Amino acid sequence: MLNTDTMRPRGPIVIDIENITKHYVMGEETVHALRGVTLQIHRNEYLAIMGPSGSGKSTLMNMLGCLDTPSSGRYEFNGKDVSSMDDDELAAIRNREIGFVFQTFNLLPRSTSLRNVELPLIYAGVDPETREERAAQTLRDVGLGERLHHKPNELSGGQRQRVAIARALVNNPSIILADEPTGNLDSKTGEEIMALLENLYQAGHTIILVTHEADIARHARRTVHLRDGLIESDATSAATELQTLAFT
Amino acid sequence: MKRFIYELTESWKIAAAQMRANKTRSMLTALGVIIGIVAVTLMGTAITGIQIGFDQSMAVLGDDVLYVDQQPWIRRDDWWNFRSRKKIQTEYAETLNRMIGANEKSNLLLAVPAASWFRTVKNGENVVNNVYILGTTSDFTAISTVDCAKGRFFNELESRGGTDVVVIGYDIADALFPSDDPINKSVLINGHPFKVIGVNTRQGTFLGLFSWDSMVAIPLTSFKRYFTAKSESEIRVKVKDKTKLAEAKDELIGYMRRVRALPPEKANDFAINEQQAFKSTLDPVKNSIAVAGLFITGLSLFVGAIGIMNITFVSVKERTKEIGTRKALGARRRTILLQFLIESTALCLVGGLIGLLIAYVVCMGTRAAFPSFPIQFSVGLVVTSMIVSVMTGLVSGFAPAWSASRLDPVTALRYE
CB distance B413–A67 less than 8 Å? Predict the structure, then answer.
């Protein structure tokens, strides 16, 4: 394990967060979920965000996913300041730049795999033919070429998560944000999903993994630990370091 | 724009899928709209029916004909004041026609006498009591708005000579000659035989207002021969240009004063009636019926709309997580708003279509059962009720759709 200072970035900066805070007012109390987080994520990184519940892990993930805006601080996504964007501008960023993978898959229950994967393309204004073609191709890429017209309840947990990953990938986003992607899967299927994510990373995707399981976080090349709304540690694994060195 | 169309198509698909997935719930909710639309549509047909009935009845009077009577049709004074007036004589018509002929710039065209009396008309076993017997001249064809369906009206020769011929209304023909052609058959009017030479075109009756269908017309000369003293007479005067009705009326008043030999200080002892006066009295009544009727039936539609609003709120609540997912995938506020608006509108449209279908069946049934009841199912009505359905959907869906579009994606995603 090496220190952050020694990390050598491989690509341009995708996410640039500087001293962001987030607090919620809950009745009488003000909850400080994030107390000043500074973080930079480069293209084609594989990063895990870890931390016990209440550490601000989820809040940071919402922030990174442009689902929420910080109370203070600066957040630039691909050089664009997102901290002051309104709902619809954020929606456009999420649509084009971020692929979400949820713990509970969050597929539309009555729609086929194909229709589920097409959804981000509809919101992006892609025409129906291209939409279907791209959705089908992405599903084949995640190994679900035979399951295009199945509905979620006709699929296994692992297959559902693959559909969700295809949905996250289909718009070719800058980052893939996976929130406990194996949380609802048995360990064998979980490993398969992690292997898929590894493939995506190898293919050049930027992956941010939010998890509380060390086993899962181990797949990432860089691990950020949160505690009490602050970054406790930010470490890059040796493997990455070697790989990085090999490239330079 | 393209994206908007894709989102719109998507929203319709979702709406259809939602309805398929929640059949019972959708049908029950749509039922409110169905009842509302049936009520409003039937009210609409009734109102148009009443309108058409009025217009048909009014059309008998003609909008270019002035009626010289002893009394005004709409009395504002004591009846007795009019009762004591001198009667209108059928002979005035000839005098008036001379006056009209003498004035080159006259706004009047022709005066026609009309005497009337109620009598029994018989053909063998078939009897119709209290038939409106009209005694007039062949000039009547010039001012009448009704044509003969069969045969013809009596000519000048028959008119002057007092031939015993009769033109009968559609309903009279139907009652007296249920199975055969009445033309050239004989009927007894008050015991006197008349030869039927014409049957009028069916005009339809409404609320017992004047209708040609239950009248018969005979030459005035014959009328005078058989029915005398107590009969009511009036003079009908056709005007040249119905846009100059007021001038024509003034001219006619002048002539009538001369006919009656009234000195300048005396008030008119006759009345000039016209269709418009009648209409303007009936219109407010008709309009208040329409407003009250539509308001009451509109309430049932309103209840239906509340049902739609309620179910859309439920749908938003149930699908909070889905809304969160959609937002995470890039759905904007407008997209979500549109989706739920279309869901409520689709429900209302389905309700509206079913409602319209039911209303149509009821209308056709009513028409088949009571042919004389004026009921009108028009394209305009279909379009209107579809617009009303869509509006109902949009209005009732707006509040829930708005709340859905405003949902915070983080909260919505966390919702279980």
Answer: yes
